[in-house]
Amino acid sequence: MAAGKSVVGREFAARRRMKFTDTDQLVVNAHGPISELFAARGECGFREAEARCVAAALAERSATVVSLGGGAILDTGTQQLLRNHTVVFLDTDLETVLPRIIRSGNRPMLAGDPARRWQELADVRRPIYESLADITIDTRGLSVPAIIDRLTTILNEGA
């Protein structure tokens, strides 16, 4: 959450002339604002809608960079689908994301104490991300272009 997945994914896809899909945007397109979906259907209802959008994005046949919502990996069905794709984990820490969290302000999962909630969520999600990731990039202190350069280098070395 707030790791830069959408920004990095969008710019990486543009650089590689690939399609880009943001699953949070798919959820918004299908169901309206995420905060309203949370209010109406709770986290469980949101996660169900998110899982359907992730499955649709991952079923795309063309070369596509897909940015997942931070908690999408909690769904075991999504975990299974991701095993058939190259997964990049943008690892970060609270110090790095805190300014982004404060700027964005409207994240239902961070209600109350955003810094504490982010860390709690990161502690639960990190092991799942690590188990799914084919590539892990420590983004602390890196600009978006530097992250993309690092990812490009890793992918080119593996080719």
TrEMBL record:
Gene: aroK
BP terms from Gene Ontology: amino acid biosynthetic process; aromatic amino acid family biosynthetic process; chorismate biosynthetic process
Subunit annotation: Monomer.
Protein name, entry field: Shikimate kinase
Origin: domain of life: Bacteria
Keywords: Amino-acid biosynthesis, Aromatic amino acid biosynthesis, ATP-binding, Cytoplasm, Kinase, Magnesium, Metal-binding, Nucleotide-binding, Transferase
Residues annotated for Mg(2+) binding in this entry: S6
Residues that, per the record, bind substrate: D24, R47, G70, R125
Cofactor note: Binds 1 Mg(2+) ion per subunit.
Family: Belongs to the shikimate kinase family.
